[in-house]
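User: I'm new to structure prediction. If I give you an amino acid sequence, what do you actually give back? Let's try with this one:
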Amino acid sequence: MRTNSDFTPLFRSSVGFERMLNALEAARRAETVDNWPPYDIVKTGEDDYRITMAVAGFSQDELALSQEENMLVVSGQKANGEDVQYLHRGIATQPFHRRFELADHVKVVDAELVNGLLTIGLKRETPEEVKPRQIEIATAQAMPKAEPEQIEAGKHAA
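Assistant: Good question. You get back a string of structure tokens that encode the predicted 3D arrangement of the chain. For your 158 residues, that looks like this:
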């Protein structure tokens, strides 16, 4: 069952959340047809994450990982060097292209392929300039009361 959500009121009443709201709109419209290869996303710490993809049958040379701004792209393409007649083919070898939308300041820190599982380590590294900071409130210095300047009229001889 799909529910339609209208994010227009949020666009009208928020400032600076356009990217998040556009991502919600895109996710709502996206049709998830391809669910291969299977993957897990795990939060391993306060700012640490791990994506594990089951890529059995793919070697390290047949996999590619790239990060462009906030998009992580994992793709795989089998080499076409086999001239084998299969009686049954149960191990998937079709090419794939999986995208993961990353939050701001999330970077790929490592990736490894072990026993058919591609594990990608991610870490949120918040720059100092966007971390919360304490702002000092200055107190207004009481200005000393200035006596009004008096102009003394000199006595003129008439």
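You can read the tokens as a compact description of the fold. Here is one thing that stands out. The first strand starts at residue 39 and ends at 43.
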